[in-house]
Amino acid sequence: QPGSKKAEFCTQGSNRMMEFCKTHNISFEQCGKVIVATEESELAYLDVLNERGKANGLKVKKITQSELKEVEPYVSGIAALHVPEAGIVSYTKVAEKLVSILQNDGVEIVFNKKVGLITSEEKKCTVETQNQTFESNYVINCSGLYSDTLAKSAGVELEHRIIPFRGEYFELVEDRRYLVKNLIYPVPNLSFPFLGVHFTRMIDGSIHAGPNAVLSLKKEGYSKFSFDAIEAWQSLSYKGFWKLVGQHWQEGFRELHRSVS
Ligand SMILES: Cc1cc2nc3c(=O)[nH]c(=O)nc-3n(C[C@H](O)[C@H](O)[C@H](O)COP(=O)(O)OP(=O)(O)OC[C@H]3O[C@@H](n4cnc5c(N)ncnc54)[C@H](O)[C@@H]3O)c2cc1C
Predict the structure, then answer these.
(1) What is the ipTM for the molecules in this complex?
(2) Is 203 near ligand 1, meaning CB less than 6 Å away?
């Protein structure tokens, strides 16, 4: 939404990311993306995205079917939104550069330590791993799918729980890469809380297609049969999970069927 922190951070973040890449010689491309409507029912929301993009200062443009063919010749759609500012970068390269800058500034980065517990007393936090304990005034919990579990261990009361969904991707074979020029997205389906299957050209030229969204019975479980009894129970015993199932069970089964077929 225009005026939100997310909108503010996205605009600033995008500009600062490009500056960072230029300064440190990391290749990036502002290749643009298209959000493609394939049905009449999607046109109204395409207009909403167009207005919102403009309000956020982007040079978005609603384009016709024939203009879309000029941008993405192999895409069939009835209209699209072109977002010229969208770009691609290898985030691994960005993260590696950040690590080396911090280390050169004397910051110690500790890798491969699983945090088991965070405790906090007045003005002092303790972070415990299997074989080491760290103390500090502040802790920033950015443990992804485990951030709820770790926050709970630190005594934070949470109403929400993270339910893991696995997104599966395909890669286009090399001699079909020409089918996708840049980034191709569907119009988001607002009744379904996922991103939608899209095509992404990576900075190395490969093209990814995905993701779907399949319920996973293990956090950070990336194979179809990943299972963890405690984590599965944490999902299945959460009433928010059953609310989601009540609203989206048909789509959930379709995703599961597509994943195993
Ligand atoms: C295939 C794919 C493509 C994506 N593409 C895009 C994209 O193009 N643009 C975009 O904006 N977003 C994209 N995303 C989403 C983006 O990657 C995530 O939103 C982002 O990585 C979340 O960052 P995070 O730091 O919150 O969590 P994470 O990246 O999940 O990092 C959390 C880290 O904490 C570690 N951790 C967890 N528990 C512990 C513990 N107890 N002790 C120590 N460490 C722990 C985890 O192992 C992990 O390394 C993509 C995601 C996927 C899967």
Answers:
(1) 0.93
(2) no
